[in-house]
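Renewal narrative, Specific Aim 1. Our central claim is that a sequence can be written position by position from structural information alone. The example that follows is taken directly from our test logs and has not been curated for this report. It begins with the structure tokens describing the chain, in the order in which they were read.
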């Protein structure tokens, strides 16, 4: 990737910062297309002066997207939302229509390689609008840019994640945590660094073009087991309260009306299906990546939620 020009849509997000950092280390020039460039300034020191350039781009605006990919050798699309939000942007607007615009613009600009980061739960037949929109995005990218590589990660963990950090913060404020559907849903958490490595390999290796990869970690856990791991690292023992899916859907529908909801009905629908690799598609092993375990990484960022601070001792 040395001297290549790479446009990263959503480069200031959780996965994006790791991708940008890796690209900068290779010597690539990185254009970071984001809605709020000022919030992406922290990326600039990851490269030399002028190597990493955040700039405004709306994934809903064809002209804006077209400008963002001009002169690029490769494109990475990381834009995604967990719940419909401001500017009337819904799942289909971002995950399907936005992905289509990026792929079409990249193809028209003569971009050589594209990586579309989707989600392991992508399914056109799913009850969840999130999962359906991810599947629609994959289909749109394939139609516009057949050589694109699609990556489907399971729940992604790391210092800035929205899973362990959210529940750890909740555990600091409440004596109980919810086990939606009894906490039986299965996950195969994948480390953010491994996902970023997968993006880099997909961009660099021609044999990855046109392929779809399912990215899961080395271990499968239930939702309950993941909360227990979090509590073990923070030293906070909390009551885990099973909540039936039906009741959780009602709560999600109500909480989903908040500006930054803790839970939405669509997220509850997602939890009805296990989030693990199918085994029918290649994954990290085929990319030459040894998956990182949750137990290795979690202690490095859960320590700040410990009673007494990060340097306090945990009673095991």
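The sequence written for that structure reads:
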């Amino acid at each position: 990737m040395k001297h290549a020009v790479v446009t990263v849509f959503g480069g200031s997000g959780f996965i994006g910062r790791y991708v940008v950092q890796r690209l900068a280390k290779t010597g690539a020039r990185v254009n970071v297309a984001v809605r709020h460039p000022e919030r992406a300034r922290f990326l600039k020191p990851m490269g030399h002066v002028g190597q990493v350039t955040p700039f405004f781009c709306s994934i809903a605006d064809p002209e804006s997207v077209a400008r963002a990919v001009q002169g690029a050798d490769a494109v990475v699309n990381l834009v995604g939302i967990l719940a419909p939000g401001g500017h009337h942007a819904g799942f289909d607007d971002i995950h399907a229509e936005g992905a289509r615009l990026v792929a079409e613009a990249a193809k028209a600009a003569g971009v050589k390689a594209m990586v579309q980061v989707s989600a392991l739960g992508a399914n056109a037949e799913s009850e969840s609008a999130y999962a359906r929109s991810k599947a629609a995005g994959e289909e749109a990218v394939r139609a516009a840019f057949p050589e694109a590589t699609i990556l489907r990660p399971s729940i992604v963990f790391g210092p800035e994640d929205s899973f362990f950090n959210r529940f750890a913060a909740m555990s600091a404020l409440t004596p109980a945590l919810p086990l939606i559907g009894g906490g039986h849903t299965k996950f195969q958490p994948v480390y953010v660094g491994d996902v970023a490595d997968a993006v880099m390999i997909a961009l660099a290796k021609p044999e990855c073009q046109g392929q779809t990869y399912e990215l899961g970690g080395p271990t499968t856990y239930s939702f309950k087991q993941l909360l227990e791991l979090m509590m073990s690292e923070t030293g906070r023992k909390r009551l885990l309260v099973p909540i039936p899916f039906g009741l959780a859907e009602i709560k999600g529908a109500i909480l989903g009306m908040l500006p930054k909801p803790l839970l939405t009905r669509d997220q509850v629908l997602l939890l009805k299906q296990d989030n693990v690799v199918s085994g029918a598609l290649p994954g990290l092993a085929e990319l030459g990546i040894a998956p990182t375990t949750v137990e290795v990484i979690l202690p490095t960022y859960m320590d700040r939620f410990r009673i007494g601070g990060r340097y306090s001792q945990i009673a095991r």
